[in-house]
């Protein structure tokens, strides 16, 4: 299922970023990969709303909840260490790095089904 939402990927691991880009693109998603702070106004200029952020949880430090609550993102999918536990609920989902390829797509599908 495709959507008008733009996925913004801020993922440090180049291999994971490439794999996510390939998988999500093949599923018809529109996406952009960036190396930026998710609250940088630049993102709002280059990435039209509605946007969903896919980001390494470690990149955000203690700002995860604040970024998820921001009006700038329809949802945030945080990629966490494999030792951390799963879902935090819409508009925030925590997906384990080891499950990222399937977990991101499943989260998007679940959110879209809930909004339909």
Task: Describe the protein's topology.
Blueprint (H helix, E strand, L loop, with lengths): L5 E5 L3 H13 L3 E4 L7 H6 L4 E6 H4 L3 H6 L5 E6 L11 E5 L3 H16 L1
Parallel strand pairs: 1-2, 1-3, 3-4, 4-5
Helix pairs in contact: 1-5
Question: Would you tell me the structural class of the helices and strands?
Answer: alpha/beta
Q: What is the name of the CATH architecture?
A: 3-Layer(aba) Sandwich
> For the residues shown, what is the average pLDDT?
88
Number of helices, counting only DSSP H or I runs of 4 residues or more: 5
Euclidean distance between termini CA atoms: 12 Å
Report low-confidence residues grouped into runs of 5 or more.
none
Protein name: Response regulatory domain-containing protein
Please characterize this protein's 3D structure.
This is Response regulatory domain-containing protein. The protein has 116 residues and is α/β, with parallel strands linked by helices. The chain has one domain: Rossmann fold. Strands 2-1-3-4-5 form a 5-stranded parallel beta sheet. β1, α1 and β2 form a beta-alpha-beta unit. The longest helix is centred in the last third of the chain and has 16 residues. The protein starts with 5 loop residues before the first strand and ends with a helix.
